[in-house]
Structures are given as C-alpha cells and as structure tokens.
Amino acid sequence: MLLQSRAVFALGLRMCSTHVTKGPLIETARPNSDMSEFRKDFSKAKHIVIITGAGVSAESGVPTFRGENEKWRKWQSQDLATPEAFSRTPSRVWEFYHYRRELALNKKPSAAHQAIAECEARLRKQGRSVVVITQCTDDLHRQAGSKHVLKIHGSLMETRCVSCGNVTLNKRSPICAALKDKGSPDPDVADAQIPVDKLPRCDESDCHGLLRPNVVFFGETLDSHVLTKVEKEMEICDLCLVVGTSSIVYPAAMFGPRVASRGVPVAEFNTQTTPKSQYFTYHFQGPCGTTLPPALARHESEVIY
C-alpha cells in the first residue's frame, strides 16, 4: 500500500476520495491537543511545511467545492471542474470559474493567512524556513505576504492557452466582455451559452487560441515540477502543519501522513477530525483563524531582530 500511495504521489493525479489509507503508515495514539507541547516542537523546528486546504480560504469567504457550495446552479461543482466538461461546454465551465474568480478577487486574507505569512517573515530572519504547500487556487497566501508558496492545484488568477500552452497572470475583471455579470450560481439562471470565439482568448501573436483557467481539473495530472519541489520539502521538513483540509483529495491527502511516517511531528488544524487525523501527533479543533495564530506566534526562545 505504501508503494501504491507513492505511485499516486509520483503520478500526481488529482482525484477525490474518502479512502483511508492503512498499512505501513504509522498510526499514532489519539492526537495530542496540548498547545504547549506543540509549541516546544515549533521552537526547535528549522524547516516547517504548512499544507493548506480550502478551509483556510473559506474563512475569507471563498467557497469550497463541498457543503452548501457543492452545487453551482444544478450541477455538481466537481463535475464542472473536469477536462471533459470544459471540452463539451466551455461557456458553462467559464461561467462557473468566472464566478469563483470574481469572488476570490474581492476577498481579503484571513487571520490564518496572516499568521502564516508573519511567521514565515519572522523565522526567515532567524535562518529558519516556512514553506506553504496549498491546494487553494486563490491568491490569498501571496496577498498576505507569504513568499514561498507551492500551488499544487494551480491558480485562478492565471490562464493557459489550450492551443499554444502559454500561461499568463490574469486578474482582469471581468476576464472578457462576454462574461461580464455572468456566472450567477442561482439554479434558476440559464446558461449564457457564450460562443467560443467570445470566451477568453490568447493574446499571443498568431495564436488567439481558447484560454482555460490554469487550474488542475479533477482527473488531470499535477505539475511535475511543482511535485518535485513538494517532495523535496517533505523530505527535509522537521515540522508539518496540515491546515483547513479535509484530507480526502489525492495526492495532497497523503502529504501529512508521509511526513508523519518519518517520525516528524505533524499538527492538524481543522474544524473537525479527518480520515488522516489518526496518523498525526497533534489535532487542534476549531476555526483556523482562531487556532493557528497562537500556534505560530513568536516563541519565548526566539531572538528578536
């Protein structure tokens, strides 16, 4: 099973699953919720990896793919976030992502985003590192000031041409004239059925190909260059935080357990336990914006620069 989980990581296929991996991974006793014990591990850590999921951005008002936001109009959100859906109905998928882009563009970093960025900046002056590995496709970690961010599922604020492959930072609002005021999630709103030539198009000379959001759709392979960097960070980290993620989307669901299998302390911050909580050293329950700031605040042993 461990070899199988490593194969999934190497392949980097984004897939949703509630499967709980058993076997060679080390299961701890009931996760510890003693913040003072976590703070001791935090004070000693030199290379900290923070894995963040949709729960962090949800506290900023960015909807997740689940719960009350599981549907957009009458479709399941996860069924729209696929290459097949984009190929069949690019107008509908672009409406869906335009809605998500516009929401994200108008949100501000949460207390959890701010705590992570402040911790990274502070520890950098001490010769220590903080790396964010995020499943979120918004830009809120960057807005908060985080410098070392690995976005494994891509970015809503980038587009990729399906013809020439050119990737471009794109924060235009609306992204194209035809999508202005489109994308309402109301189930009574009809599809705009925008002609393909009116959807976002490539600005490269002699191309003008159709653009798509530069995000990893379900069923697509994650960027191998990003995964290589993730692999390296997981091998060298001496403390890992898993923040605001349900731990059911692979391969990200295996990142925390893989670090734990090396005997490295892993702390989970979430509103509830997850299928992977049993593998972690710590579990702190509650909103990330409440539990994370005191966890990452300056430790009394830190030298102030």
TrEMBL record:
Catalytic activity: N(6)-succinyl-L-lysyl-[protein] + NAD(+) + H2O = 2''-O-succinyl-ADP-D-ribose + nicotinamide + L-lysyl-[protein]; N(6)-malonyl-L-lysyl-[protein] + NAD(+) + H2O = 2''-O-malonyl-ADP-D-ribose + nicotinamide + L-lysyl-[protein]; N(6)-glutaryl-L-lysyl-[protein] + NAD(+) + H2O = 2''-O-glutaryl-ADP-D-ribose + nicotinamide + L-lysyl-[protein]
EC number: 2.3.1.-
Cofactor: Zn(2+)
Gene Ontology MF term list: histone deacetylase activity, NAD-dependent; NAD+ binding; protein-glutaryllysine deglutarylase activity; protein-malonyllysine demalonylase activity; protein-succinyllysine desuccinylase activity; zinc ion binding
Record has Zinc as a keyword: yes
Entries under InterPro entries matching the protein: DHS-like_NAD/FAD-binding_dom, NAD-dep_sirtuin_deacylases, Sirtuin, Sirtuin_cat_small_dom_sf, Sirtuin_class_III, Ssirtuin_cat_dom
Compartmental location: Mitochondrion; Cytoplasm, Cytosol; Nucleus
Pfam families named among the record's database cross-references: SIR2 (PF02146)
Cofactor note: Binds 1 zinc ion per subunit.
Function: NAD-dependent lysine demalonylase, desuccinylase and deglutarylase that specifically removes malonyl, succinyl and glutaryl groups on target proteins. Has weak NAD-dependent protein deacetylase activity; however this activity may not be physiologically relevant in vivo.
Swiss-Prot/TrEMBL domain comment: In contrast to class I sirtuins, class III sirtuins have only weak deacetylase activity. Difference in substrate specificity is probably due to a larger hydrophobic pocket with 2 residues (Tyr-97 and Arg-100) that bind to malonylated and succinylated substrates and define the specificity.
PANTHER family cross-referenced by the UniProt entry: NAD-DEPENDENT PROTEIN DEACYLASE SIRTUIN-5, MITOCHONDRIAL-RELATED
Protein name, entry field: NAD-dependent protein deacylase sirtuin-5, mitochondrial
Organism: Seriola dumerili (Greater amberjack)
